[in-house]
Amino acid sequence: MGKLDGKVAFITGVARGQGRAEALALAAEGADIIGIDICGPVATNVAEASTHADLENTALAVKELGRTMVAAEADVRDYAGLKAALDEGVRQLGRLDIVVANAGMWNYGLTETITEEMWDVVQDVNLKGVWHTAKAAIPILKAQGSGGAMVFTTSSMATIGAPNMSPYCAAKHGVSGLVKTIAMELAPHNVRVNSVAPTTVNTKLIHNQPTYALFAPDLAADELTLDNVEPRFATIPLLDVAWVEPEDIAGAVVYLASDDARYVTGLDLRVDAGQILN
Fold first, then answer.
1. Which of 104, 230, 266, 272 has a CA positioned 20 to 30 A from the CA of residue 244?
2. Mean of per-residue pLDDT scores for the chain
3. Which residues lie closer than 8 Å to 121 by C-beta, 6 or more apart?
């Protein structure tokens, strides 16, 4: 018996990284998955693009756990496309219980050098995309009348700030406020709304040259290697670790989605290795 037997979870940004880890963790507890990913580049994003093959690999891994995944390519910035993918998944799987708004990206620059495009794309993916996810899912959860759980990805940057990251910090602060507001709106429907706030996570979002350069501006391009930058990342958390793993975030999502957290709502659950205390 799993903690989520008979449940269906909708996850954005599911092709790899945290999204894939969340899909597998929820499936391991008995949930079927509706998963979307853009499977392509996002302008100004520092990480390499996810692919259709990544999405297929997530679906295959869910299947190997004995669960079903309805996968679709969709962009969280496109409300109509997101809603169509969610509606089709609910049609196939019969219901919706858990919503995980995970899709995200970032770019860097001092506030006065950030372009309009850099600002807008981060807000559209990281904040508006979360609103789109909630907007599409809420009517389904209300109509079912059986409660549910929504989990949004924020960040340690939803509590503190960081130089060169004003678009990202602003968006994640916004998601934190959105969590609290929707938690109040959906409490009468027994739908709990929380967020997970990671520190740096071991995914492609940090393992790329622009991010390495941000943390080690004194190093030449050919010196920007994992071995050289890992000690820089290790200065961020309070605990003796450079970053946490996607599975650490997925474990928090499972907790918030399950009955173990049946009286938890409006919470920003930090999985930050003590970063904001450091």
1. 266
2. 97
3. 42, 43, 44, 45, 105, 107
**Cα angle, residue 88 at apex, residues 172 and 181 outer, rounded to 5°:** 30
Instruction: Give the C-alpha separation, 207 to 209, whole Å.
Output: 7
Q: Is 99 buried (19+), middle (13-18) or exposed (0-12) by CB count in 10 A?
A: buried
Q: What positions carry a catalytic annotation?
A: 168
What pLDDT is attached to residue 1?
A: 85
Q: What would the pLDDT profile of 204-234 be if each residue is shown by its tens digit? A: 999 999 999 999 999 999 999 999 999 999 9
Residues with pLDDT less than 50, the chain: none
Which amino acid would we find at residue 37? D
Q: What beta strand segments (E) does 17-157 contain?
A: 32-37, 69-73, 98-101, 148-153
Write the CA distances from 225 to 101, 212, 221, integer angstroms.
31, 8, 9
- For residues 74 and 36, the answer to whether their CB atoms sit within 8 Å is yes
Q: What is the pLDDT of residue 249?
A: 98
Amino acid (1-letter code) at residue 49: A
200: tokens are: 């740096």
Here the tokens at position 278 are: 């450091």
Domains of the chain: 8-201+245-268 (3.40.50.720), 207-242 (no CATH)
Burial class (CB within 10 angstroms; exposed 0-12, middle 13-18, buried 19+) of 252: buried
β-strands 98-101, 69-73: how paired?
unpaired
CA–CA distance, 224 with 52 (Å, rounded to integer): 29
User: Rounded CA gap, 245 and 21, in Å?
Assistant: 9
Beta-bridge partner residues of 192: 149
